Amino acid sequence: MIMNKSGVGVCLLLAALLPMAHAISVSYGSSGYSGSVSLSEAYQLDDSAALAESTALSSGGVSQSTSISGTGLNLVSKSVSGSTYGIEAAAQSYGALDMSAALSASGTSGGMSQSVSGAGNIAASSAGTSGADAVCNIAQVENGLISTTQSISSGGSVSGSQSTTLEGEVGVVGSISTSGDSGMVVTGDIIGEGRMDADLRSSDASITGQVSVDGTVWMNSQDMSIVGSNDFGIAVEGLRVAGDGIGTFGVNAAHVSGDAAKKSNVKTNAVVYYQNSPISYTTTGWRWNRANPLVLYLRADKNLASEGLNSNSVRTAITNAADTWDAVTTRNLFYDGGVIVDPRKNADNPYDGYSVHAWKYLSLAPSALAYSRTRYGYPKVNGYYTVLESDVSYNTRYSWTTDLSRAQMYNGRIFDVQTVALHELGHTLGLGDLYTLPSTDPRRGDYSQIMNSYNDPQRTLGNGDIAGIRKLYGS
Ligand SMILES: [Zn+2]
Fold it and tell me: Which of 10, 96, 131, 139 could form an S-S bond across to 174 if both were Cys, CB 3.0 to 4.6 Å?
């Protein structure tokens, strides 16, 4: 979960702190009647790399094509700017890399595109500004494969796009489009072996396109247009069955404030992870702000029955999960009457105003285990957006149980309803996944928290879960 409506950027540019064998930096400038343009580029390449580049300067203009291939640790960054605009692009790899880039720019406008593909740990980003408008793109994979084509064009206005396919243990995509103080961000992340595809086009503070995880489209242009024309965001936070356990995914679209495109650095350092620490939590930026408790519904239908689940037992499991969160705060967060069983409430409709738990068959999402889809927006109370509703879906492709003695989440893949509900309700209330934090963050390895990933049933909260919910709702 990277998205943050209040303005934390997703355009993580890349650490340049690693020792490199060959450092090259070049700058060009050209002036003409329409103004002047400048181009600077930096390469940190190891012995595995081959670089070919040609640059042509004209009166007030520059054009360039570049190709790089390598198998080691390599980094390239470029920036070009004129009188009213700027464009940047960067790629970093630790593994096999093929990259090609082309740019053409004058004093008043410019365009740059880069195609980056490879295997290993690879990240590519691009950004552009024009006056008060900005766009940026990032795509990143750890231990995997990626192919991303990103372009930026900037002049009187700025637009950007990315078309990215990645498969690996960790994947991140994100695009931001801002104009002055308003804008939009779309992000996707996966943890645990999986695949993500993103086609995103950014301009005029809006984004269109789609993001899919393991072949399922979780955010499409219709969602993005609803988010773009209303004051709310949509966030899907899910669990996935990954090769060696349970992974996560998140896909988000939201408004951002205009400074969101600020770059931040990712550093690579050894890190000692916390163990059941009260510091181990992270928040999403939304919260149940209403005085009335949140009413949860369970859609008791044939999907639930064909799982062999008893609707009363499931009702009890989800009610217990809700009560577990409720018990550690002074607020009465969930309706005391428990989950309401209602076969007519729709599953996974984020726009109907009801918070519904339901079982669904996700034929195209073989690895999706469960996910929450939360709609949130104004009013903002003490800095937190208001949850408007939050649906939780459980995939009927998997076996579920409410009987702790039958649950074998890791080996037998019989998943405990109460464990998964406890995690997903944490998202509903405003806590984020720990496992999607950067690997340098000591909270990421604190597996005592329900908001981390887990391989075994866990019906209780960790110290960080408790501290996080008390931060949001008081103790
Ligand atoms: Zn989660």
Answer: 10
